[in-house]
Write a structure and sequence with these properties.
Order of helices and strands: HEEEEHEHEEEHEEHH
CATH class: Alpha Beta
Strand content: 15-25%
CATH topology: L-fuculose-1-phosphate Aldolase
Helix content: 25-40%
Shape: globular
Number of domains: 1
Radius of gyration: 18 Å
Keywords: Lyase, Metal-binding
Organism: Pseudosulfitobacter pseudonitzschiae
Low-confidence stretches: 212-217
Protein name: Fuculose phosphate aldolase
Pfam families: Aldolase_II (PF00596)
Strand order of the largest sheet: 4-3-2-1-5-10-9-8
Mean pLDDT: 92
Distance between the termini: 50 Å
CATH superfamily: Class II aldolase/adducin N-terminal domain
Largest sheet: 8 strands, mixed
GO molecular function: aldehyde-lyase activity; metal ion binding
CATH architecture: 3-Layer(aba) Sandwich
Number of strands: 10
Length: 225
């Protein structure tokens, strides 16, 4: 195992534990994958996060073969298919966060109630139709729901967030839960007003440089003389 692979395995384990610490997952319901080499690394099935060690993380190939004596997460199919379909994404986080899963039970998308929805890549977070967990049918539904997006819901199931790194994918999963919390708070008052496609397009453009530390790309800033 190379130092780079060990680092990725350790980061994946830390993120699994962080999901529960952040309150967006319980037990071992969630799972995480990250692109590596000619395939990907994925959390194992059924091992409590506090018991995970780097050797428990499963290395999988695109043909579904894997190495080691530990079985991969039962959701390996959608992890594989997302990473194969979206080369710009390197990590996938799946959670059963309470509020977002509640919205998924309603079978509805999360609309643009807050500009932070742009973090998911568009003006909505779609809800994929229900399919049995661990199946190829679910993988197909998820890949479709993620077209042009980095996050989606799965009806009666949970959340998927994908990004360029495990850290970014985990942060996006938190954002989805926040948006779902806001939506559920608003629904008793009726359908909430939403931002327009044009308004979200402006935010998407701003997000291209959001968080970067180059003053020249931030309007109104200048170095003190």
């Amino acid at each position: 195992m190379t130092d780079q692979e060990l680092t990725l395995r350790t980061e994946l384990i830390e993120a699994c534990r962080a999901m529960n610490g952040l309150g967006i997952n319980k037990g071992t319901a969630g799972n995480i994958s990250v692109r590596h080499g000619d395939g990907f690394l994925i959390s194992p099935t059924g091992i409590p996060y506090d018991k995970l060690r780097p050797e428990h993380v499963v290395a999988m190939n695109w043909d579904a073969s894997f190495t080691g004596d530990v079985l991969p997460s039962s959701e390996w199919r959608f992890h594989r298919d997302i990473l194969q379909a979206r080369p710009e994404l390197n990590a996938v986080v799946h959670t059963h966060s309470t509020k977002a899963t509640s919205v998924s039970v309603l079978g509805r998308d999360i609309p643009a109630i807050h500009y932070s929805i742009a973090a998911a890549g568009g003006d909505s977070i779609r809800c994929a139709p229900y399919e049995l967990f661990g199946t190829q049918e679910l993988a197909h539904a998820v890949v479709k729901a993620l077209e042009g997006r980095r996050a989606c819901l799965m009806a009666h199931h949970g959340v998927i967030a994908a990004h360029v790194s495990i850290a970014r994918a985990l942060a996006l999963a938190v954002t989805v839960e926040e948006l779902a919390t806001q939506l559920l708070a608003l629904l008793p008052m009726g359908e909430p007003p939403v931002l327009s496609e044009a308004q979200i397009a402006v935010v998407l453009e701003k997000f291209k440089t959001y968080g970067q530390q180059t003053p020249t790309v931030q309007e109104g800033l200048r170095h003190a003389s």
